[in-house]
Specification:
37% helix, alpha/beta, 2 domains, 398 residues, binds the ligand N[C@@H](CCOP(=O)(O)O)C(=O)O, Rossmann fold
Length: 398
């Protein structure tokens, strides 16, 4: 059953629908977990190990073995910050971002519905993932990207997997509006996170975090917020396992946005559910360069209901955090992902995070998604002849 999160109107799972027909709000798929947690024992470590909790037919899955991503204890950073820190590395998914979790469920649903074309608007990662899963499923795929604002690695992926790529003269929000119109007219099946089945895949990040912690919730989960589907999805996942009795507590959901694209942090600051879109979003973290997140209602609810927080970080703080994580803990992430680390640092410094808290930062995409930003942040390699004396002279005299 699909349910409107605002008015509660219900729809059949088979209905292709993106917004409530009664009130226009966003939708979610109703799932009650009714298996014991031992059901998941001994299974292959991908997200399909939770297949009883996923609202699609697992025997028809379109999968690239997504999920089961690294959960790294980060003691050096933790010591510096005076907390207990884990990083959930979503860049280790097949196309290098958490979107693959959503796409395996979304694409499986597309096959169950018998559609022939799928589409999305994207700041990059969604399109890379959709293109790969569409190729695997053998479906036609169209993607709309904001012209000149997509990191090189992501653009290469979308094109190389054979998507029909449109460079839209406009920002992501405008591209999504156009793509959604096509989907409403039934020209294609929309696989952005407004599709509630996409988020059913992403909720497994929440499942894995509490499972990895030995069926305990962390005090806090911190993640970047762009179109706002992921924070809602992770909250849905941990809430489902809480209702099932697998965990006793719930984490405080904490969303981080870039200063130039922060409609949710603004709404949180004003303690309101009424989000005012940001007209011209801008940030180096292109993955979260979004002014009108479609899942803002779900995201703000997750934050308020969990007693969580929303905060902003500057581009400079993002780039510093990206380097810090790479050089202190060896974890390479794209700029948007580093927003969670930058936000953690800022919240600790402000005293909003208590000493000793157990925090999980979700880092959403791999470093190589945005190679240009990574290279620009480094000094040029040392140019030298293949002459051992010359090499020694430089290397040993430092
Ligand atoms: N950062 C996203 C923006 C679209 O988000 P979605 O979760 O609604 O698909 C991207 O990678 O395109």
């Amino acid at each position: 059953m699909i349910r409107c999160v605002s008015c509660g109107e219900e729809y059949e799972d088979e209905e292709v629908i993106y917004n409530c027909k009664k009130c226009g709000s966003v939708l979610e798929v109703e799932v009650e977990v009714d298996v014991p947690k031992t059901t998941f024992d001994g299974r292959r470590d991908n997200l399909w190990k939770y297949k009883e909790c996923l609202p699609v037919d697992a025997s028809k899955r379109v999968s690239l073995d997504e999920g089961g991503t690294p959960f790294c204890k980060c003691d050096k950073l933790a010591k510096e910050l005076g907390i207990d820190l884990y990083v959930k590395v979503e860049g280790s998914n097949p196309t290098g971002s958490f979107k693959d979790r959503g796409m395996t469920i979304g694409m499986t649903k597309a096959m169950m519905l018998g559609v022939d074309t799928v589409g999305c608007a994207s700041t990059g990662n969604t399109s890379a993932s959709l293109a790969a899963y569409a190729a695997r499923a053998g479906l036609r795929c169209a993607v709309f990207l904001p012209a000149g604002k997509v990191a090189l690695g992501k653009l290469a992926q979308a094109m190389f997997h054979g998507a029909e790529v449109f460079s839209i003269n406009g920002n992501f929000d405008e591209a999504l509006e156009a793509m959604t119109q096509l989907a409403r007219e039934k020209h294609l099946y929309l696989l952005n996170s407004i599709n509630p089945f996409r988020l059913e895949g992403q909720k497994t990040i929440g499942y894995e975090i509490v499972h990895d912690l030995g069926w305990e919730a962390p005090d806090r989960i911190i993640l970047p917020v762009g179109n706002a589907g992921n924070i809602s999805a992770i909250w849905k996942g941990v809430s489902e396992f809480h209702r099932a009795g697998f965990i006793d507590d719930l984490p405080m959901m904490t969303g981080i946005q870039a200063e130039g694209a922060c409609p949710i942090a603004n709404a949180f600051r004003d303690k309101t559910m009424d989000m005012a879109p940001v007209e011209n979003p801008e940030t180096i973290a292109t993955a979260i360069r979004i002014g009108a997140p479609v899942s803002y209602i779900k995201a703000l609810r997750a934050i308020y209901d969990s007693n969580g927080l929303a905060e902003t970080v500057s581009d400079e703080e993002i780039l510093d955090a990206q380097k810090l994580l790479a050089r202190t803990e060896g974890i390479g992430v794209e700029p948007a992902s580093a927003a969670s680390i930058a936000g953690l640092k800022k919240l600790v410094e402000q005293g909003d995070i208590d000493k000793g808290e157990r925090v999980v930062c979700v880092v959403t995409g791999h470093l190589l998604k945005d190679p240009n930003t990574a290279i620009d942040a480094c000094v040029d390699p040392v140019q030298v002849d293949a002459d051992i004396d010359k090499i020694k002279e430089i290397l040993l005299n430092k």
